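dude i think i finally got it to work??
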Amino acid sequence: MIGIIDYEAGNIASVTNALNRLNVNFTVTNELEKLGHCDGYIFPGVGHAYSAMRSLDEHNLTNWMKDIKKPLLGICLGMQLLFEESEEGSSTGLGVIPGRLRKFDSNHGKVPHMGWNTFTDIADHNLLRGIQRDDYFYYVHSYYAPVNRYSLATSDYLNTFASVVANNNFLGVQFHPEKSGNTGEHLLSNFLTIVKDSSSVTV
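look at this
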């Protein structure tokens, strides 16, 4: 069972449609008891970082999310909230991945970065299994994550930025896999395999 974390800041419809196409069992909830029974999580997000974090706090999800041991995939703003902080309203994130989000400089190009883009670099990781540097994914974002040792893939738009990140069980993608056609569904399938493999490990 996949838990889609509902904190009133996520693009829930497109994510649920993608999971329906993949015939995946999921629940959309912000109730900790229900989330506790899930094998993995998708953390979507659109909008303002400060408002999103406030919504997480209001639903008592912030501390719980920091302690998650099961695989979690953050999408777009959901990925950005995994970082420590953002220039967007000087907001503080979950801090499970080190780094500070910066805003693209509108003096050098159009902001937000919107449309299809490829990777400039890509690492060997199960989330990216079968995905190539020249595969296209769909982006909509004004803030970008720094490139550091947690970056699995990078892309270029005004700056080189982290487009896929990971720190242990916390995974994130800046783009929208649920809006990226067959390639995006392939990445979601990779995440589902990670969840399945993780849930089969006995402790």
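DSSP finds six helices and 13 strands in the chain.
im so relieved honestly
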